[in-house]
Specification:
Layout: E1 2-10, E2 13-18, E3 24-28, H1 35-45, E4 61-69, H2 77-82, E5 91-100, E6 106-112, E7 115-117, H3 119-129, E8 130-133, H4 144-155, H5 158-205, H6 211-223, H7 225-241, H8 246-263, H9 267-295, H10 301-319, H11 323-340, H12 343-389, E9 396-403, E10 415-422, E11 430-431, H13 438-451, E12 460-464, H14 472-485, E13 491-494, H15 498-501, E14 506-515, E15 518-525, H16 528-539, H17 544-563
Parallel strand pairs: 3-13, 3-14, 8-12, 12-13
Antiparallel strand pairs: 1-2, 1-4, 4-5, 5-6, 6-7, 9-10, 10-11, 14-15
Helix pairs in contact: 4-12, 5-10, 5-11, 5-12, 6-10, 7-9, 8-9, 10-11, 12-13, 13-14, 16-17
Length: 569
C-alpha cells in the first residue's frame, strides 16, 4: 500500500504531500488542476521514464518520494532481491530524481531503501507494488505473463503451477545431463582410441620412479669412461702395481723398523703404525681393482642409456612435464577408460528416467491447461457481465489458451495465453494491448480486476480516466465496482464524476492557483463537510443548496454501500 507520497517540482506541483490510506482514494478537481500529474508522479516511482519537460519551470531537479507499506502486499522473490530485501520487510521507500542536463535531456536516478538502483530494477520492483490503469503502459494485464497470472489466480491453480515449475526444473536438469552424456557417447570411441594409444605407449616404455635420475648419472660416467679408467689405473699403480709403489715402500720401511726394534724395543710402536698403513694401502688397492673390474665401461652401454633417456623424454613431452606426472597420467587414463565403458549403460538408464520425468511433467501441465481452459471461459463470461454494467455492452472478451505443436516444457506450463477483445459489435478480436481508448482500457481493467478480485494479489491499483465518456447509472456502477475492489486493494482513482467520488474512503482535492507570476497546485484531504462541498461542485447545474443536499445524500448512500464487507483497516 502506498502510504506516503511527496512530489517536488513536477510541472505545477511545486511541493505537495499525500498520505493515501487503505481502500478507495479519489482525487478530484477542476480540469487542468493537476490530478493526472499526481498519477504521472506515481508512474515515475514505479519506473516510468521521465524527460526534462516534466520539471517545473526554473527548477533544477524534480523529486518524487514514496513509501509502500508491505503488510498485505506479496512482492515477487525477484523484486525482493532487487530491492535488497534479504528478509521480509515492513516497507519499501522509493526516491526518484530527475535533474536537468541541457536541452530535452534529464539525468535520472532511482533509490530503493536508500540504495541507488537502475531504472530496470525500479520497474521490476514497481510491477510488484502497483498497477497503473489509464493512458499508461505500466499495467500487468497488458503483458502476456500478467494475463497468464491473472487467469491462474482466477482458476486458483497457483499451487498446481508451482508443481509444474518444479517438475520442469527436474526435467530440464535431466535433459541437460542426458544431452551431455549422449555427446560423451559420440565422443567415446575417439577418446577410447586415444586412451588405448596412450596407455599402450606408456606401458610399453615402462617408466619407473627415479629411473631418469639414475640414467643421467650413468650417462655422465659413460661419457667420461676413458678418463675415469685412466685415473683409476694410475691410482692402482701408485698404490701397489709399480716397483716404486706405496705398498712396496711401506713394506721396505716395515722391514727396516723390524730390524731397528731388535736394538730398541720402543721402535716397535712405529713399526706397528707402518704395518697398519701398509694393510690400509693394500685394501685401497684391492678396492680400486674391483672398481675397475665393475665399471667395465661397455662401449655399447652409452647408446643404450641415451636411447632410454630419449624414450622417457618423448613420454614427458606428450603426457607430462616430469616422469612422475607421466606415471600419474597412466593411472588417470586407466581410470577414465574404465569409466567410459559404463557410459552407454548410464545413457540408457538416464533416458528412461527423463521419459518418466517428461511424462510426469506433461501430466501436471495438461491438468493445468485444462483448469485454465475452464477458467478462461468462466472469466470471459464474468468479465462480459461486468463490462455490460460499465457501458461496454457489445464488448467481446476471449481468453485464448493454446499450445505449441509439439508442446514445449516451460516452468509456467505448456500454454500460450492471450486476452483478446473487440470493444464494439462487428469488430474483429484484437490483442488486449492494442486497445486504444484509455477510458475503455481502464474500465476493462476494472471489470477484469473485479472478475478475479477474490483471487487477485493485493497490490495498489491506480485508475486514471476510468470515467471517460460515462455518466449516470454507469458512473454509479463504476463507483460500486471500485468500492468492491477496494475491499482487497488500495485504489487511487482520478475522477470527474460525483457518483464515483461519493464512494471514496479518502477524498483528495486538487486545486490550481495563480499567485503573482507563478501557477501552483495544492492537494488537500477533505473532511466530511469538504467532501459534500466538492461533490456538490461536481454535480453542477442546480442551485447550491439543492446540490449540497444531493451531495450529502450521495456520500451517505455510497458510504453505506462501500463500508459493507470492508476488510481493510
Amino acid at each position: 500500500m502506498l502510504s506516503f507520497l511527496r512530489i517536488t517540482n513536477l510541472a505545477i506541483l511545486e511541493d505537495i504531500t499525500l498520505e493515501p490510506g487503505p481502500g478507495l482514494n479519489v482525487l478530484t478537481g477542476e480540469t487542468g488542476a493537476g490530478k493526472s500529474i499526481v498519477v504521472d508522479a506515481i508512474g515515475l516511482l514505479l519506473g516510468e521514464r521521465g524527460s526534462a519537460d516534466l520539471l517545473r519551470s526554473g527548477a533544477d531537479a524534480l523529486i518524487v518520494e514514496g513509501q509502500f507499506d508491505l503488510a498485505d502486499e506479496r512482492i515477487s522473490e525477484a523484486a525482493a532481491a532487487a530491492a535488497g530485501l534479504s528478509e521480509p520487510a515492513a516497507e519499501i521507500v522509493i526516491r526518484r530524481e530527475l535533474q536537468t542536463s541541457g536541452g530535452d535531456a534529464a539525468r535520472s536516478r532511482a533509490f530503493l531503501n536508500g540504495r541507488i538502483v537502475s531504472l530496470a530494477t525500479l520497474k521490476e520492483v514497481g510491477e510488484s507494488l502497483a498497477d497503473l490503469h489509464g493512458q499508461h503502459q505500466h499495467q500487468s494485464l497488458l503483458r502476456p505473463e500478467g494475463q497468464r497470472d491473472a487467469l491462474d489466480r482466477a482458476a486458483r491453480c497457483e499451487p498446481l503451477r508451482m508443481e509444474v515449475a518444479a517438475a520442469c526444473t527436474s526435467l530440464r536438469a535431466g535433459m541437460l545431463e542426458l544431452e551431455e552424456l549422449s555427446r560423451a557417447v559420440e565422443e567415446r570411441s575417439q577418446r577410447e582410441e586415444q586412451l588405448v594409444r596412450m596407455i599402450s605407449e606408456i606401458e610399453s616404455t615402462g617408466p619407473l620412479p627415479g629411473e631418469e635420475e639414475e640414467l643421467r648419472r650413468e650417462e655422465g660416467l659413460l661419457q667420461h669412461a676413458g678418463e675415469i679408467g685412466s685415473l683409476a689405473g694410475q691410482a692402482h699403480g701408485l698404490l701397489s702395481d709399480d716397483d716404486d709403489s706405496v705398498a712396496t715402500r711401506l713394506g721396505a720401511s716395515k722391514a727396516l723398523l723390524d730390524r731397528l726394534t731388535a736394538f730398541d724395543p720402543q721402535a716397535g710402536a712405529i713399526a706397528a703404525l707402518v704395518e697398519e698403513a701398509r694393510v690400509g694401502v693394500a685394501e685401497a688397492s684391492r678396492s680400486v681393482s674391483r672398481y675397475l673390474e665393475r665399471e667395465g665401461f661397455d662401449p655399447n652401454r652409452l647408446d643404450q642409456v641415451a636411447g632410454r633417456l630419449a624414450d622417457l623424454e618423448r613420454l614427458k613431452r606428450r603426457y607430462g612435464g616430469t616422469l612422475d606426472e607421466v606415471i600419474a597420467s597412466l593411472e588417470t587414463a586407466r581410470t577414465e577408460r574404465a569409466a567410459l565403458g559404463s557410459v552407454p549403460e548410464r545413457v540408457e538408464a538416464l533416458a528412461e528416467e527423463v521419459q518418466r520425468m517428461e511424462a510426469a511433467y506433461m501430466k501436471l501441465a495438461r491438468e493445468l491447461s485444462e483448469r485454465r481452459q475452464r477458467a478462461a471461459h468462466e472469466l470471459g463470461r464474468t468479465a462480459a457481465k461486468e463490462l455490460a454494467a460499465l457501458a461496454m455492452e457489445g464488448t467481446r472478451l476471449e481468453i485464448l489458451v493454446d499450445q505449441e505443436d509439439p508442446p514445449q516444457p516451460h516452468p509456467s506450463g505448456i500454454d500460450r495465453i492471450g486476452f483478446w477483445i473487440a470493444p464494439n459489435r462487428g469488430e474483429a478480436l484484437k490483442p488486449l494491448a492494442r486497445v486504444a481508448s484509455g477510458g475503455e482500457l481502464s474500465r476493462l481493467m476494472l471489470a477484469l480486476r473485479n472478475a478475479v478480485e477474490e483471487a487477485d494479489d493485493a497490490r495498489t491499483l491506480i485508475f486514471d480516466e476510468v470515467d471517460s465518456g460515462i455518466g449516470g447509472s454507469v458512473a454509479d456502477a463504476v463507483g460500486q465496482r471500485l468500492s468492491r475492489l477496494a475491499r482487497r486493494h488500495q485504489i487511487l482513482c482520478v475522477t470527474h464524476l460525483p457518483q464515483i467520488a461519493a464512494f471514496a474512503d479518502r477524498h483528495f482535492h486538487v486545486r490550481k492557483r495563480t499567485e503573482g507570476a507563478r501557477t501552483r497546485a495544492t492537494v488537500s484531504l477533505l473532511d466530511e463537510d469538504g467532501r459534500v462541498e466538492e461533490i456538490a461542485r461536481m454535480l453542477g447545474g442546480m442551485p447550491p443548496e439543492t446540490a449540497r443536499r444531493h451531495a450529502a445524500a450521495m456520500v451517505g448512500r455510497s458510504g453505506l454501500k462501500g463500508s459493507r464487507g470492508r476488510t481493510h483497516a
